[in-house]
Fold this protein.
Amino acid sequence: MQLTLNDFDYPLPPELIAQAPLAERSASRLLVVPADKDVPLLDRHFADLPELIGPNDLLVFNDTRVIHARLHGVKASGGQVEVLIERAVGPHEALAQVRASKSPRTGSTLRLADAFEVEVLGRAGEFYHLRFPAGEGLFELLERHGKLPLPPYIQRAAGDDDESRYQTVFAREPGSVAAPTAGLHFDETTLARITAKGARCAWLTLHVGAGTFQPVRVDDLGQHRMHRERYVIPQETVDAIAATRAAGGRVIAVGTTSMRALEAAAQDGPLAAGSGETEIFILPGFHFQVVDALITNFHLPKSTLLMLVSAFAGMDEIRRAYAHAIARRYRFFSYGDAMFLTRNENAEHDAV
């Protein structure tokens, strides 16, 4: 079956795009989507999640931390610029999106936050390679002078509440420019209830880049090239997955970022600890090696993440789930509600 971009479109009423978090992290709704399309969808609340977890299951979380990646400034000519860090490529260098009336030239400087200057070293595809001042770490500099980068579909500036609510409670490793949003639903109480059932938690790090919001610009999906993201999988997590398999439990990825890291690391052989970069593009027909279930938010129309969940749960099942969520007025995207998906092995027979 030849799939095109329009196969992953759906009509979304704009008022369903969540513009702010709920008062409590675990107060969001949870749509349970079974692998069998003949089994009804279940409308639950996220606080009910521990009831869906077995004593031998393992939840794998992404412990990345969102950095203050957005900066405003001026070129030497006086023109205004907006910089969004895509990812760090060294202790004082980063790739970034730069918005300006005229593109900055290689060798020019930008004064950011009226506090420091960066040098434009060149281009790397659609991103600019910037050198930041030495003497202070890049993330420390951004923390003091940058702003939290909310997604483009949240039509307001970041406020004080976002400083905590657009981070997971387990965020540790700075480097992302967008939150691993499935993790935003977890609070300490929910985590404690999960472990009290005998389930285990494990951690990895995948730093989400600004490319996650870039639209797919080709109708032929085979021509799309994913952005690169860096990940680290500790040996403890690999050992926990092996123990879960031996005990007959499920590996549950918390978020598409955790899934991307695990499946990317297992593409060329058995899952192994280590670090790397991935540009894995998961489409229907993909053979999943590691993940049995997925906790995720609702994703944008025509997005690579919608393609990923369709590959995992089945295109018909995802279409049914999204139509149900829209009819029941679920909240969508980063600050919205969540889904619990089970891997549909029949979906792996679909091909692009």
Notes: The longest helix spans residues 235-247.
